[in-house]
Structure to design on (407 residues):
């Protein structure tokens, strides 16, 4: 069932099968199983089913797993449930990959296509007839959250940018992700300005996609190519911290490319050891007494959602602790398991309603705390929450940027 590059890591994941006690903790915490009978649960399709799989004989109910990783995170025995399921899904879809999944997995391609005609593309994606056609022809649900293309790419902004401060702390490499190049440009800009304000010289190499969406849809060969190329692009300043503003993409470099797809390239190992989520990096500075606390009060109350792929990195919720340093700002942890988008899962017409049901507790929390503004670390989660609630949903750096008087 496994391709050669995944064989060793799949074997290691399989070695954890016998540690499963059938305690069902993974099932009690699975956000998808809680809302639909179409998914029989991570224990059933994971360690239980893996013992009986031969060749490509994978039960198709596995495709309703959202790959949120909660099962692996909560397993007290260390069973690699999510990893097993991801590899099994890739084998299941290998010879009949939907065109829809291939299209929505290539964020860079979407950005390049939409950017030159951004106003027209954004307008078209708001039209009900266009969305109906997309659902019928491609399989993207007509109500699914859509990215908004920026009229300015981050790279074009960077060409004309000159830091207003002199660096006093050395260099950092900035990893913005492909969404940060075409769709979440303002987040990339604010991250650079914030790091420069703190005294860092920010080096931003040309960079492509990490391949996370490809990997989560089972397109392992293409995903490996993407993540290898990206690792080489980011590995330009030996020993220099790499700071990412896309928490899910940071997780791809830290562990998912190796643990799920078996990519053990030296550049990826080096980059994975140095890459840090922006909030994680800034909170470390604060804990060492190296983060200036001369914040302007921000008199707001906002809900915060920690995305699944951030929690899967085992760093806790650094943004929560970081934002609570800002005077006047009250940050309420929504404590939701998942928003329901799960990368590209919630875009798909057959899974949209499931994604909405998964995200409902989060949406309700946002509306209760502040229906106008919320905070989240990853792009697709922000799009999902914004579409469901009507709130503006921002990266944590936005509020830090404001508290330092940079906005």
């Amino acid at each position: 069932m496994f391709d050669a590059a995944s064989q060793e890591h799949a074997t290691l994941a399989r070695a954890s099968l016998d540690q499963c006690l059938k305690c069902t903790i993974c099932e009690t915490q699975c956000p998808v199983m809680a809302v639909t009978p179409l998914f029989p649960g991570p224990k059933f399709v994971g360690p239980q089913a893996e013992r009986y799989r031969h060749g490509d004989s994978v039960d198709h109910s596995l495709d309703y797993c959202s790959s949120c990783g909660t099962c692996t995170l909560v397993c007290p025995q260390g069973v690699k449930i999510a990893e097993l399921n991801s590899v099994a899904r890739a084998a299941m879809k290998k010879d009949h990959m939907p065109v829809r999944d291939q299209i929505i997995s290539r964020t860079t391609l979407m950005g390049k296509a939409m950017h030159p005609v951004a106003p027209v593309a954004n307008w078209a994606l708001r039209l009900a007839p266009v969305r109906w056609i997309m659902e019928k022809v491609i399989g993207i649900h007509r109500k699914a959250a859509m990215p908004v293309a920026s009229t300015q790419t981050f790279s074009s902004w960077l060409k004309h940018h000159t830091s207003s401060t002199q660096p006093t702390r050395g260099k950092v490499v900035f990893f913005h992700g492909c969404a940060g190049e075409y769709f979440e440009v303002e987040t990339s800009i604010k991250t650079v300005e914030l790091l420069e304000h703190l005294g860092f010289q920010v080096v931003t190499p040309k960079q492509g996609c990490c391949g996370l969406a490809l990997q989560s849809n089972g397109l392992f060969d293409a995903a490996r190519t993407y993540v290898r190329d990206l690792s080489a692009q980011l590995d330009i300043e030996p020993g220099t911290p790499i700071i990412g503003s896309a928490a899910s993409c940071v997780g791809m470099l830290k562990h998912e490319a190796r643990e799920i797809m078996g990519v053990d390239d030296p550049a990826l190992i080096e980059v994975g050891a140095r890459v840090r989520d922006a909030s994680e990096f800034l909170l470390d500075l604060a804990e060492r007494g190296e983060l200036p606390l001369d914040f302007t009060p921000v008199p707001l109350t906002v809900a915060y959602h920690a995305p699944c792929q951030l929690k899967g990195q085992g760093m806790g919720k650094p943004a929560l602790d970081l934002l609570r340093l800002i005077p006047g700002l009250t940050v309420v942890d929504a404590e939701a398991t998942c928003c329901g988008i799960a990368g590209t899962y919630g875009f798909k017409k057959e899974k949209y309603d499931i994604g909405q049901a998964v995200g409902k507790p989060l949406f309700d929390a946002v509306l209760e705390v502040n229906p106008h503004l919320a905070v989240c670390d990853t792009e697709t989660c922000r799009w999902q929450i914004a579409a469901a609630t009507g709130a503006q949903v921002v990266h944590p750096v936005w509020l830090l940027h404001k508290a330092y008087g940079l906005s």
Notes: The mean pLDDT is 91.
